[in-house]
Each structure stands twice: as structure tokens, then as C-alpha cells.
From TrEMBL:
Originating organism: Oricola cellulosilytica
One of the GO BP terms on file: glycolipid biosynthetic process
Domain of life assignment: Bacteria
Keyword vocabulary terms for this entry: Acyltransferase, Cell inner membrane, Cell membrane, Membrane, Transferase
Cellular localization per UniProt: Cell inner membrane
NCBIfam families according to UniProt: PRK06553.1
Stored Pfam families: Lip_A_acyltrans
The protein, known as: Lipid A biosynthesis lauroyl acyltransferase
Cellular compartments per GO CC: plasma membrane
GO molecular function, one term: acyltransferase activity
Main location: membrane
Amino acid sequence: MRQNIYRLWKNANRTRYWVEAQIVFALLGLARLLPARTAIELAASIGRKVGPLTGRHKLALENLRQAFPEKSDEERERIALGMWGNMFRLGAEYVYLEKIFDFDPDARTHGRIEVEGEEIFRRLRDGNASCIFFTAHTGNFELLPVCAATFGLNVTALFRPPNNPYVAKKLLSARHTAMGHLVPSKAGAAWGLAKALDDGGSVGMLVDQKFHRGALGTFFGRPVKTNPLLPKLVRQFDRAVHPARCIRLPDGRFRLELSEAISLPRNGDGDIDVPASTQMLNDIVERWVREYPEQWMWFHRRWDV
């Protein structure tokens, strides 16, 4: 009896995921019929109207209240609306990712994309460096691995696929066209990244997601658990760690920032201090989010430990 109930539940979930995926694919198909700028702006407008109607909007406002108790309800609502516009805009940008990224390292003038830290990209490329990049879900973070590939860097990126398996499969296929090697965030992901580093390549990862078995620290003064994989990889392979982020600018433009390597904290024995290192990552991401709060994903349960 219990197995039959589980089978029915699993089939119902599969059907729901399939229906949701067809809706997403249809919307993306319609977006392709429009000019890129028009489709992206339309998506942002829809997001600002649809987002507040979802259950996630309440969670986003609660997270904002906890993170910014000094702000008024109106200010937090404005940030949440901006976030929904950013997220729906990001969804539409998947369709035009290769068109959006018009940066040419050898050109004297640039279009939508400006890069801060070009000299670091060139130095890493010319030195055939193996390093670790980290970022957060800010702006259009998907442009960062595209940028690295443009400079000729071999980067294997860790990403978390959507819960919907049909959307995840389609998204993975789209990402492979412009982003090089990808490792889904699941059991065995650490081995894929370790192999990339062992082979002399570089890896990139998002560090602002909840991780149930992670190192305990704080984010906006509240307890969180953070994936300790990055400092553990540094401890094993002794690679330089570079912060990188994307900032969404007015008029459909972006600034991609690559910073010089940071030094992770070490314990008395000289080994990488994993909890202190994950806290350093949290502090850097918090600084980014405070600077552009509407460009971060406030609707997920980052603090639910």
C-alpha cells in the first residue's frame, strides 16, 4: 500500500514538472520571436507584477526584514520588486546569452559588457594558472564563466540544477554551449572539481546557498550553514582564490568584476581554517548584497538552519 502511494505521488510530481516545463519552454520560445532588448524588458515587467503574487514573496520580505531591520516596509518592498524584475530578466537572458555577451578583449570599445580586472584575467591566462573563482547569485552571474572562456581560461563550474528535471536538462544543454565544463551540485560534485584542479584547470562556484551539512557561521548577523567545499579544495590543492561578481547596470549593461586573490585564514598548524574561511566568503557576499540588494535572490531559505 505504501509503495503504491509513493508511486502515485512520484507520477503526480513527474506530471506537474512536465507541465511546468512546457510552460517555461513555451514562454522562452515566444521570447525568441522578439528582439532581445524587448523580450528582456518585458520579462522584467512581468516579474515585478507576478513575483509578489507568489508565496515566495512573503519569504523574501521576511528575509529582507531580518537583514535590514533599519529599512522601512516601503524600502523592503521596493527591493523585493527589483529582485523579481532581476530574476525574470535573468530567465529571459538565457535565450540571448551569447548575444548579450559582446565583450571582445582585443577591442578598443565595448558594448553591453565592461570588465573590471582584465589584467588579472590576462595574467592568469598567460601564466596558465590553476585557481578557484567564487561568486554569488547577483546580477547575471551566468556571464562570469562566459567571460572566463573569452579570455581563454579553462574553468569547470559547479552549479545547482533546478528541481524540475525537464528544465534542468534543457538548462544544462544551453549552458554547455557557452560555459565550458559544468558539474551539477550533487553527490560526487567534489570529485569533479578536484579532478579539474588536479589536471591543472580552474574551477568556479557559487557560495551563497544553504548547505545542510555546512560550516556554521553568520550572514547579515544571522546563523547560516555554508558549503565548506571551497576552503577544503584550497587546503588540498593550495590554489589562489579570486572573488568575482556581476553587477547589472542601467540600459541593459553589465559590469563583471574579477578581484585579486584573497588569503584564506589558517589555524595554528598553518592549515586552512575551514569555518573561518567560509565566514570570510559570507562576509564578502554580504558586502556585495548590501551594495546592490535588489540584485540578490531573497526568496530562498538561506538562513533556515
